[in-house]
Amino acid sequence: MFDVLAKKSKIENRRSKILADFGGRVLILGIGNILLKDEGIGVHVVHQLQKEDLPDNVEIIDGGTAGLDILLSQEGLHKLVVIDAVRAGSEPGTIVKFEIRNSKFETPIFRQSQLSLHQLDLFDAIAVAEKMNTLPEEIVVVGVEPAEVNLGLELSEEVARSVPEVIEQVLEEIGDVIHRK
CB 68: neighbour CB atoms within 10 A? Predict the structure, then answer.
């Protein structure tokens, strides 16, 4: 007989691999406007992540539409993981993940296009944080291609289906930092 209750989810398995004794601070920042359907994907994901039992050094913030200003108030961050709607010309619901170093996207394909709907704010916040010597050692953006950016509180079906995978990728990013110690 198969015991459904004994089987752990991917998230529970990932969480059990995260070590709570890592000293570096990690910020997971969900940004977006939840009044504009898929534009609010980052906020929807962080609300799900806030239910997770994560180490004390991992902070989760619903940044809403002013989310990137929060970066400027953070000091001593080892890693920043930003979750946002991203226009990369892919199918709606497609997840893109890229690193930002020295105020530039590391993935060449993204350098010429506007990705995040908050891209200017993101680069401005990174540039200011760099000048203030508060720039995290690592910055990763986990983005989802939106299907609908118009009035409404719910995510489109395509984007809603991507939420579990976005959560998995964010947890992977956290695990990567914690296990590097």
Answer: 24
pTM score: 0.77
pLDDT, one tens digit per residue, over 144-172 is 999 999 999 999 999 999 999 999 999 99
Regions in the chain scoring below 70 on pLDDT = 1-23, 67-68, 102-123, 176-181
What is the rounded distance in angstroms from the CA atom of residue 3 to the CA atom of residue 7?
Answer: 7
CA–CA gap between residue 169 and residue 76 (Å, rounded): 23
Report the topology of domain 23-37+54-180: Rossmann fold (3.40.50)
What is the distance of C-alpha 157 from the center of its chain?
20
- Identify whether the C-beta of residue 3 lies closer than 8 Å to the C-beta of residue 41: no
Radius of gyration of the chain (CA): 16
* Helix, strand or coil, per DSSP, at residue 126: helix
d(CA 137, CA 120): 20
In b/e form, how buried is each residue of 18-57, taking b as 16+ CB within 10 angstroms? Answer: beeebebbbbbbbbbbbebbbbbbbbbbbebbeebebeeb
